[in-house]
Automatic annotation (TrEMBL):
PROSITE patterns: MI. It comes from Bombyx mandarina. Pfam families: MA3. The gene is LOC114243440. Residues 1-89 are annotated as: Disordered. Residues 133-254, 296-419 form the MI domain. Transmembrane segments: none annotated. One of its GO terms (biological process) is negative regulation of DNA-templated transcription. Belongs to the PDCD4 family. This is Programmed cell death protein 4.
Amino acid sequence: MEVDRIASDSENVAMDEKPVVEQGAGDAATSNPERLRRKNKKYARSNSKDGPSAVTPLPKYRSWKNSRRPRNGHGRGLPKKGGAGGKGVWGLPGSEMLEEYVEDQNDPNYDSEAVTNGDIEFKQVIVEAEPEDIIRKSEPVILEYFEHGDTNAAAEEFLDFVTAARSHLVCETIVEIALDHKAMHCEMASVLISDLYGRVFSAKDIGYAFERLLEKLPDLVLDTPDAALLLSNFIARCVADDCLPPRFVQAQAAAALSAPARQAIHRAETLLSMKQGLVRLDNIWGVGGGIRPVKSLIRQIQLLLKEYLTSGELAEAMRCVRELEVPHFHHELVYETILLALETINSGVEEQLCTFLAELRRCCIVTPDQMDRGFIRVLEDMNDIVLDVPLAYIMLDRFLERCQTRFRLGDNVLKRVPTRGRKRFVSEGDGGAIKDHALKLRE
């Protein structure tokens, strides 16, 4: 029995042992002690950091049998599965944060009204804005659009506070604000409605908006006498832009409407029934502002100056200049004014046109930069102007002197006053008057 106990212990302990004599071995075992010595079984493991050649012996005692380190000789001696394997363990560090906590109703701290009980369902609720709020927020966006003309920027701002159920209010507000503005703004409003179609509101929303506008038309006429005419243009333009179906006009014509609304629908039917009416409706509001061609603007400027010379009403001329709405093109106005003064060869007309330029400068309608640019253009074109007006140099010097006495010309203008041909004019018997005028202007 002692031999069996020693033999069993030798299997569990990896260490050097004393020779043990087995029963029944006899003298042969005694004569050969090397056969009685059991060779120790060596275990080796490789460390992943040290490489495949590193060999480290395992612990000698099997008393570490409860250790969770791998026993196959591989690995770095760390717990298996990062400490998450086996039963009776705490699990992987940090795993308690991933577990779902389920409250127990038998828990003394259980709260029946808590939101984590699982009997409460959360849903997204979109609060509809009031109609007054949508109209109030839409007005500054529309007015700002009339300044920059960017439909994409306006659409992005509308999408921030407009929902599908109230999108018709946006179309209605656009038309109402455009009724109080010029034809150019009405054109911009039609373009905005066309670009917002399918993005902010649908054809159904546009139709509902115009139905509401037709109902409110008797009140709109009190503030805007031409509201019926303008609303008919909007309806016809929306049909031409495929924002409204043609049956909308037919349905409204059969409905019971007020007198102004019936007038608007009847005119919209007339516009749509004209030959090539859909093509003509693209320019139903006309072309205004800087969109107009250059030749058209020059023609309007020339007519404005001739009307001013005929009537002599300076205030009306200032109003007409403002209505042109081309501040970037005012240098052409100055150029045409000076050219007209050179061609008429009349001191009265020169004085009247000089007063016109002085009033433009005083009212800040024409900026100093645009004023100087117009004068410089005339000075640069004198070689061609003198071919049509032989006395152009004389008239120019006289007109520059008048303007210098009424308002100050820019230094760039005075430096570019032409000097060619002065000797010929002096020899013709002007007594050096032109030369004296040039010296005064330079001073």
